[in-house]
Fold each of these.
Amino acid sequence: MRVVSGIDAAGKLLNRRTGFQATDPAVEQSVRAIIEQVRAGGDKILKELTAKYDGARLDRIEVTAEEIQKARNAIDPGLLDALETAAGQITSYHSEQFTAIKSAVDAMGSRQLLRPLDRVGVYAPGGKAFYPSTVLMTAIPAREAGVKEVILATPPGSDGRIPLPTLAAAAIAGVDRVFAVGGAQAVAALAYGTETIPQVDKICGPGNVYVMTAKKMVFGHVAIDGLQGPSEVLIIADETTDPVDCAADILAQAEHDPLAQSVLVTTSHKLAGNVLGELKLRMRENPRHMIIEQSLEQRGIIAVVASLEEAVELANLYAPEHLCFLAASAGDYLASLRHAGCIFIGEKATVAVGDYVAGPSHALPTSGTARFSSPLNIWDFVKITDVVNVDADMIFKYGPAAVTIARAEGLENHARAIEARYRGVSNG
């Protein structure tokens, strides 16, 4: 990991207000071609691309409802219990959020209508690995928001099958339909539809650079939740922090992907040295040590600063996906932490709990977009329709102002449309 001292040096490394890095033109070209192929060729092209990129030959794209339900009973009972526990936490959190949102809308009376989306597509990465947690974290908030139909797209393994834990998670989350297709081709199918896969109103969920590029390209035809990835953590620590805890969270972040970024901002040179020592000690024993080494060597940063106030300033500058505040006085700084996808505090704080069982969705804004974006939540799956009741009282009180503005803008027929309503309107 790169080690720097001082807020100025650290700020140069952590300032991301320049925005997204440009997408590789070769990736964009490849994704654009895939999208056009899927729009033109439908299911046939999906099967060809799945064979090409996933090494899987599919007889059919859709997983049957029977297969989904059977998976729930086919996985290890301990894993089933863990997934159901996580689902309970996620459901509880988003149910409470929906109640609060609905209460706020209801307070507006008949002036606002809350409507869930009709159909949402959730994407879960797969192929060499599988992520049942992502299925829970995306599908359950949609369900709690009242989305009428939730469909899942996820890549099959080389055997053409979706791993049983992923299907079990789909059953637990109440997913309506599951399709064994991944990558940019899955995004295209969800956005434009094929003979088998229906068009959706919104696409949610993380993925690799091809998936994110595809989401960006189809945005406007459908909605998207954001462009998540690669994963990242910023840890704030002081001399009271256990270096073993710091190292454990850095390793947990780095094992995601060679492009994952782990940042430690600390007020203690001693802690920085001890964390480096722990990382070296635990690196080789790790089953994903090659991924971790690439991540930390290329993107890992340790910044030593003068105070926790400076650490908070850097955190706001970086706007991390995950912010883990491991200093004992974390609660004192919570109000000052303006930009982060999810903040972890408490004596046993660790991002890994949030990845699975804390309750809030782990689909979070990355790449500095936490400055203006929120985690996946109920608002992603509902929309507001305003209702304007124009009665005689409104015309009398506010019509003249509207007429004046309309004529100032040169829109004479707007003014006349309002004046036409003056007939029979009088004060009282």
Amino acid sequence: MSWPAAAVNRVIKAYDVRGLVGDELDESLATDLGAAFARLMRGENARQVVIGHDMRDSSPSLASAFATGVTSQGLDVVRIGLASTDQLYFASGFLDCPGAMFTASHNPAAYNGIKLCRAAAKPVGADTGLAAIRDNLVDGIGHDDRPPGGPGSIADEDLLVRYGEFLRSLVDTAGLRPLRVAVDAGNGMAGHTAPAVLGVIDSITLLPLYFELDGSFPNHEANPLDPTNLVDLQAYVRDTGADIGLAFDGDADRCFVVDERGEPVSPSTVTSLVALRELNRETGATVIHNVITSRAVPELVLERGGTPLRSRVGHSYIKALMADTGAIFGGEHSAHYYFRDFWGADSGMLAALYVLAALGEQDRPLSELTADYQRYESSGEINFTVSDASGCMEAVLKSFGSRIQSLDHLDGVTVDLGEGSWFNLRSSNTEPLLRLNVEGRSAGDVDAVVDKVSAAIAAHKVRDGAGL
């Protein structure tokens, strides 16, 4: 059957498939998505597709429908069942075949989606396959077409233990001091993977919080990027006397860290820590960071003899740069961490292992250890609702006038104000928002820049509203 273009465009995004279950994404569409993906992969000589899914109520049936579509085109299916997204990436690399992960990450329970990849976890995005899949759905899928050799088969394989073994093979955790590790799974997939990866390490005592798999997210949204979703973990760390706290999002591909005081450790700090450990293994290697990460990241990488490389925000850009440059590691402010040894894909659990190894091989508390990587104060991401993003940006730049030392437009606009202060202002791709990130030598410096940007945006909105 063929699908209306408007219906297809609602669910096929820039990087994945995502939509409201029933209204926008159902089993019929999932079947045809599977068929379209299989056709694309069959054209690249793939023979099988590995499929995993998260804990959402709708995930098993959607994954099953997708498998039906794949086999209708003559490709075999390997089902790994419940999985985190990085576990699916592992399966794609381990089995050397394309993959499909059914998840809507941190989105509410009413949503679901599909993250697609080629063999060895190579991404499938708008420019690398999703547009072709969209066109195939609009043009029409013929399930009665007889594929050469007949329909494919379906087999089940449990790769959870091998996934854990592989991650631990990349990080030396032998001889660590005893660590009490609090983990907030947010009722997401870390409740499935953390025991298999971290719980078997002799020196680690796992302190679980919200490990029950529940796609309705009864305790809090599974999005640790929002500080309100870290509150329970922060209290839990303090109450239990944990050495460290880890928080994962719904599909467990992002990891946020909390120190022994219950204070958040910025993803930029984690990026610096992991980057320097990787550079200890390979001097001079390239480390990728996006435009929002702290200036401390490239400074520390250079000081350790590495090559820092700036990227736009977003996994498609980071993964492309990882592949093009052979970078050993990449980190983003959103707590996505990418590893060359993990097929260039992101893994929150692997990043957690690196932090635990760094903490456990020395005697200082995490707050003192991470202080080695912190040089600046930051605002975090601040969002402004605007109707004229370009006009607001122009007004902000005008307000700073001669204070601007330099600027670039790699992703939005990044403005260097000198003396350690800078800010990035960029438009959201999906909402009428401007996103601001500020860094400076002191909290006062940061607050002053935030206030000035806020005032310029507010003044422009008044003028724009008045028609001036």
